[in-house]
Amino acid sequence: MATFLYKLGRLAFRRRHFVALIWVALLTLAGVGAASAPPAGNSSFSIPGTEAQKAFDLLEQRFPGASADGATARVVFKAPSGEKMTDADNKATVQKTVDELADGSEVASVADPYTGNAVSKDGTIAYASVKYDVSGMELEESTKDALEDAAQQARDAGLTVEVGGDALQAVPETGATEVIGIAVAAVVLVITFGSLVAAGLPLLTALIGVGIGVSSITALASALELGSTTSILAMMIGLAVGIDYALFIVSRYRAELAEGREREEAAGRAVGTAGSAVVFAGLTVVIALVGLAVVNIPMLTKMGVAAAGTVAIAVLIALTMIPALLGYAGRRVKPAGAKGRLLGRSRKGEPKPDRPAGPPKANLGTRWASFVVRRPLAVLLLGVIGLGAAAVPAASLELGLPDDGSQPTSTTQRRAYDLLSEGFGPGFNGPLMVVVDAKGSDAPKDAFTDVEKQIKGLDGVVAVTPPAPNKGGDTATITVIPDSKPSSVQTEDLVHAIRDAGGDVEAKTGAETLVTGSTAMNIDVSEKLNDALVPYLVLVVGLAFLLLIVVFRSILVPLKAALGFLLSVMAALGAVVAVFQWGWLSGLMGVEETGPVMSMMPIFMVGVVFGLAMDYEVFLVTRMREAFVHGEKPHQAVVTGFKHGARVVTAAAVIMMAVFAGFIGSSESMVKMIGFGLAIAVFFDAFVVRMAIVPAVLALLGKKAWWLPKWLDRALPNVDVEGEGLRTAGERGSDPDEDRELVRA
């Protein structure tokens, strides 16, 4: 592989005009596609294999035209102080609002509060339920405007009016902090390279890669039903890995220049060595993201595949466009150790006076690695105990999916949620829909009545509506109002209790009872994600473990990498629980409402963090492996790896943390949580696991770290990540392909 990438790097350096033209053309093509594509349509949230989804499908079949998945809105009215909603003026205002809402072209039905028993017992709060023919993402802007205008007219009449439901859901905004994250990355790159030109290359290529990836997602959003969160995730991960991959190749290029090589040769060797690490690091990220498909949640699968595609683009750009841009930059990119004009020269361009002659001072990475190999056990224990302490809150992890109760208090959805809780109880925001399929029953009406009686006898039920059968009389719906809020454990227990009671009815009557609705769907999603976590972990870690065995030609090094990852991801989950569930530092993070952690957060963090953790493992340990293969003793190889890699890995980690932290300012709670979780996970993994625990373990293992059974060594392909073939070619002053033929001969 190193030889192939070496030739690719030299080719891109020489044919830089052609390479740059290809990537600019791809960016233009993707941009035109995004601009001309129809707006994203329905990003349906289907969960195959769950009872809630089965009930939704049954409703569409047995209640045609009912738009079971259509958008809903609850327009909540509150009377002024001292008045009631039953007063004549207030009643007239509500009736006018209901009539205006019913005129909408996409409105399926509007329930009048006064005929539908939707006025609170104290008479101060009422609500009108609006049902639409299409989902919230498919609603026309004119329909949303009409909903807001109707609410505003009622406000002008003196009522307090808020709108809940998914009809007004908006595309999440990331805020200005995203730009701040990129600015921090730029500063880190300038400090690392000491040159604006060298620092600009990773930023430029990362932005081009993300532009192609996100534009392609936008162009395909309508056809593939991709949600807005998909492009945000792709941007988040694409920016982080795009900058990091380019950073490693530019750093290796400068190191090759420092050894006296010509620029084209240095570009080829940088791509052949650091580029090999980039390929395998990118593969681990792609495996982790594509592996999300095992969860069998279409939305999660699409997010993973889209983000994986952006990572693949980042790898290809790093391997081709970086050497091309290095060819354009010429002498403006200095060898490692040489200061550029920005940091190393005076205003007149004269070099600063040289320091007195003497042995070169060891850099910080070398000094730190030397300290770790002298006291490996103490460093190992300190790192493990520290991460263990950070992981303690994860034991209290509660999972759920966000609802209007998790929205900021500044939103109308959250205020509507609070008004409904005040007037009708917290469970009113999460009604359960029970679907009774009596097609196989001899007495459908009796089955409907039995289910209703069974539910009324359960604890935690406030109200149960009479069964509403379809035209065929073989299926009925029953609405159940819990006495607890949608995201509570009590509501989850009630859902399971209804399903258990339905089993008893089915045994007697043959009628099947299904529980659905957004609350039941959230509960089923959480359980499905929990059940899929272990298989997903086994699949992703197993495949990456095999890949790392090929890269490092060792058993213990990949095992140590996987165990270190588990430590960092558990510590990161602990931090997420502390902030988003317990409320620690919630004000600093902009978390207005604490509550359960998003259900997909654990499995998502496992996938993404594992891929990113293996990035640092590959980049750092490959340098150690390279030194060991070239004859250094194990302890010295660890120090050498840090000498060449610690500064760059540190810069890469800070950049990745800055990019992820930039998304904490998003208005979408899921994006905010993912941004924080990934940023803190990178911190734990890069600075505690890879910078402390990894060298400590390698120092304790010594030569055993690189042990591989002889039979396995013969069976594994030699991918030559260390660039041994290039070194041999360089020493002979010949072409790598010729050397390979000599070895075969």
Structure characteristics:
single chain; 745 residues; alpha+beta; five-stranded antiparallel beta sheet; four-stranded antiparallel beta sheet; 11 strands; 7% strand; disordered C terminus
Name the beta content range: 5-15%
Radius of gyration: 30 Å
For the sheet with most strands, the description reads: 5 strands, antiparallel
By oligomeric state, this entry counts as single chain
- End-to-end Cα distance: 20 Å
Task: Count up the helices.
Answer: 25
Averaged pLDDT: 82
* Structural category: alpha+beta
| Form type | elongated
The overall strand count is: 11
Work out the helicity level.
Answer: 55-70%
Unreliable spans are 342-358, 732-745
Please describe what this structure looks like:
The protein has 745 residues and is α+β, with helices and mostly antiparallel strands. 63% of the residues lie in helices and 7% in strands. It is built from 25 helices and eleven strands. The strands form three sheets. Strands 6, 7, 8, 9 and 10 form a five-stranded antiparallel β-sheet that branches. A four-stranded antiparallel β-sheet has the order 2-3-1-4, sandwiched between helices. It has a two-stranded parallel ribbon with strand order 5-11. Strand 8 (468-469) and strand 9 (475-482) form a beta hairpin. It is elongated. The relative contact order is 0.12. The model is unreliable at 342-358 and 732-745 (pLDDT under 50).
